[in-house]
Amino acid sequence: MRRVYRLTKRTIDKYDNTLLLPEYVLEGWTNTLPEMFICADVSVLYCDHATHKQFHSEFKSDRDLERLPSGKFDTNCLVRQLAAVAMNLLRLIGQYPLNESYAPVRHKVKRHSIKTVMQELKFKAVRMITHAGQWSLGLGVNDTAFAVFNVITGN
After folding, report:
1. Residues 75 and 128 occupy one common structural domain
2. Dist. CA 107–CA 59, nearest whole Å
């Protein structure tokens, strides 16, 4: 195991105000990464640690997996694997159209949460249409998310 440190000196706060005295922040990480990772690489790997924790929290709470449904390990493993597939699909739907020109304009975001994507899918106004013996979903053309849904589904 080795310990990696990073010392940051701040002279400006988050509001672009100059500080009278510089602020020093010391961060340290204990890791077991191979020696081929230099100290700068280790600090970069740990920068998105909070994002990883946020994804894990969304996975547990939004997918309702705080308590697994069975006492059997195999059943719980299957439930977790299916939840991971569902989460990846919802994440794809939530991130794919954000920067496209046809996406509805909201506020500037990097990604939609899983909960937001699920709510938008659940509360979408559609009609079930049967034509020539096949069922399809009829989305309203005036719906602001129609173009996004159309591109994602490949219609």
Report:
1. yes
2. 24
- The answer on 113 and 84 residing in a single domain is yes
Q: SS in 3 state form for the chain?
A: CEEEEEEEEEEECCCCCEEEEEEEEEEEEEECCCCCCCHHHHHHHHHCHHHHHHHHHHHHHHCCCCCCCCCCHHHHHHHHHHHHHHHHHHHHHHHCCCCCCCCCCCCCCCCCCHHHHHHHHHCCCEEEEEECCEEEEEECCCCCCHHHHHHHHCC
Question: What's the predicted TM-score (pTM) here?
Answer: 0.50
Report how many domains make up the chain: 2
**For residue 4, what are the domain limits?**
1-47
The answer to whether residues 61 and 22 belong to one domain is no
Tens digits of residue pLDDT in 127-145: 888 889 988 877 766 666 6
Residues 71 and 7 reside in one and the same domain: no
Phi, psi of 133 (to 5 degrees): 75, 10
| Residue 118 CB burial class (10 angstroms; 0-12, 13-18, ≥19) | middle
Q: Do residue 107 and residue 148 come from a single domain?
A: yes
